[in-house]
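Morning!

This is the sequence you dropped in the shared folder:
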Amino acid sequence: MLEFQIEFQPRIPPSKNLVIGTLGPNATSSDYASQYIANQLLSEQITVSTQLFDTFTEVREALLQDKVDMALVPHAYDRVNEFYMEPNFELGFVFIFPTPVYGLAKKKNKEVAFKGSRIVTHPAPLPLLTKLLPDAQDQTQIQVDLSPSTSDSAIQVMQGLADFAITNENAVKAYDLEFVSTYGNIRMSWSIFQKKLELTESYV
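The structure's back. Tokens below.
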């Protein structure tokens, strides 16, 4: 059996409020994971809050500019290397935390019709599409477009801009949708990044 343990003690800013930056809007899987981490780090000495951004590029810039204290990034993000290879960052912690249930969602009380439909999805869960569609469905009859996040996908369906979204159950509830089909949880690994110590001399 392979076992290892690492301990993470984040550097506490003078404000005593530790800010986690990650991908939004509300109800993304990253938002869900950030709430888990916030609860783990919360103590009598500090408060913990989350700031959500439209893209991970914005999360990266926010950490570089000290607008957040930590960046939470899933390993499914296709450009996670930009965090690992950023000379001003260091890896603080790695952990496994499952996402909410993923599935294909639509507006409530709307007929399920795939022919000529538009499906939106974040790039990461796109491979789930074949599992979420009926076996006999011809995918050439469907327009598939990418969106910045699972929550953005759900919002587009809520606003009538798309017919279906690959999204998670938190976003389905938040944006008043319903699942057509479900895949399940994704056992995801995550990284927490922070500025290198020599770049955070004002921290205590």
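Headline: Helices lie at 29-41, 56-64, 81-84, 129-132, 150-158, 169-174.

More detail when I'm at my desk.
O.
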